[in-house]
């Protein structure tokens, strides 16, 4: 029997790059629902006529950057943290170097930067990850560093660590 799960702390190796597939093509519905749910009424996301009159983005609406970040992290879950994460500890160095538009396909990859046992939480450890989101052309559209608290591999005898 095989159960899908994320990685235990001991399975993370610094320097390993994980490619998360399949990607996710952005639809207009994704944008409208996410943007209105989060109360981000920026016309660059919702108003095609207004966006067409603006310089710098080809007259096209932009995908909400928080949707982009959330989806990049979400694409990593099944492969890295499904059922093994305890908590997100924080994000740093978040950037969006290139716009994402409706119809673009978002692909994610993650570099493990560090993995170490927690000094204060027995049976758990801190994993530092760098997430990248790329569009269908390979252009980086999102970059973020994230620290997570993950579980160590359970003791098969049921004893504490």
TrEMBL record:
<dbReference type="InterPro" id="IPR002539">
    <property type="entry name" value="MaoC-like_dom"/>
</dbReference>
<dbReference type="InterPro" id="IPR052342">
    <property type="entry name" value="MCH/BMMD"/>
</dbReference>
<protein>
    <submittedName>
        <fullName>Dehydratase</fullName>
    </submittedName>
</protein>
<dbReference type="Pfam" id="PF01575">
    <property type="entry name" value="MaoC_dehydratas"/>
</dbReference>
<feature type="domain" description="MaoC-like">
    <location>
        <begin position="13"/>
        <end position="123"/>
    </location>
</feature>
<dbReference type="InterPro" id="IPR029069">
    <property type="entry name" value="HotDog_dom_sf"/>
</dbReference>
<comment type="similarity">
    <text>Belongs to the enoyl-CoA hydratase/isomerase family.</text>
</comment>
